[in-house]
Batch of 2 targets.
Target 1
Amino acid sequence: MRVDDVDPALALINAYAAEDRMLERSRDFLLEHIHDFLVADDGAFQGCAALAVLTSDLAEIRSLAVRPEASGRGIGRALVAAAVEEARRVGLRRVFALTLVPEFFERCGFALVSLGRLPEKSAAECPICPKRGRCDEHAMLLHLDGTRPEPLRPEEPVGYTKLVEARR
């Protein structure tokens, strides 16, 4: 991402956030994390995604957003592939995403898992998330060594809200 991409990315991300489809971001957040972001650009800003490294072996794909008029052209898939390639390049072993559209990430090779299998996320960031009491996102995980994560078991909670309820 370049500084010139911050305002279009912010507008796109926050438009989706207003529809409760992703988390809102601030301009300061985007500037602070500018090196985490990848941009799709064909002469004009088309979309973005961030790869946030959480631990020495795990990263999260965040803020994946494609302009509505560019939807269906493979831009989201290309952004995910670029983020996964970057994770490989820096030596990570796993990449995950929290999403309302698990089918999209399944098509990108990710598997549905319980957020409980990602304590690096659920313990550190979920408790301070504005959606923590009403989390409806699915955790999708990709092992970069080509193995498949263990399938979600029927008794495993999916999102943070269900995870907290299950521990009560």
Note: The chain has a mean pLDDT of 88.
Target 2
Amino acid sequence: MSIENIGTVVQALIALIAIANPIAAVPVFLSLVPPNDPVAQRLAARRVGLSVFAILSGAVLAGRLVLEIFGVSFAAFRAGGGLVVMLTGLDMLRSRHWEPPEEAVTITAVDQLIVPVAMPLIAGPGTIITAMTMAARGSAVGHPALVLTAVGVVAAVVWVVLALSGLLQPRIGMRGQAIVSRFMGLVLVAIGAQLVLGGIAEFFDLASAVRGH
């Protein structure tokens, strides 16, 4: 793997982990699994990790087809996706998080692990759009495969964090979760701004214009 490809994987990995923010999902996850049962927690964490991988992989693999169907250019999607990432980062900086609806809905424990933990707490709209943007912003062959590599690592990180959630939450605490969330939000704002500026430059072909002068 070349240095450029490694850079692509690392950038996608940082963006996806920052916006997925599995630590923020720990309290909800622990409320849905049997307490003081590490085996059940590990099984539930594996189910969530596999669900996150399936959701984000689908976004990466189907992203180009969706854009072609709706006639959206990669540059426009990159700019729009970057804007969503920026807004998500700003929400994290202001400590605004997704909350479940008030109306009661009868669902099974397995369904609760997928909704809301896997989606939208972890693989939410912002995470899905980030994965699609990372895969669609370049036309080089193999680029989606690099993003899929990052998706696989993210799913593994989610798996490990949730499997160890019973040990992590007492040590991190609410203040620690808030600090991590705000830091990740700042990272997302920067990544989103880079995507927006890159999409605008690509859409108007500003790089060629500068070289022409």
Note: Confidence is low (pLDDT under 50) at residues 100-107.
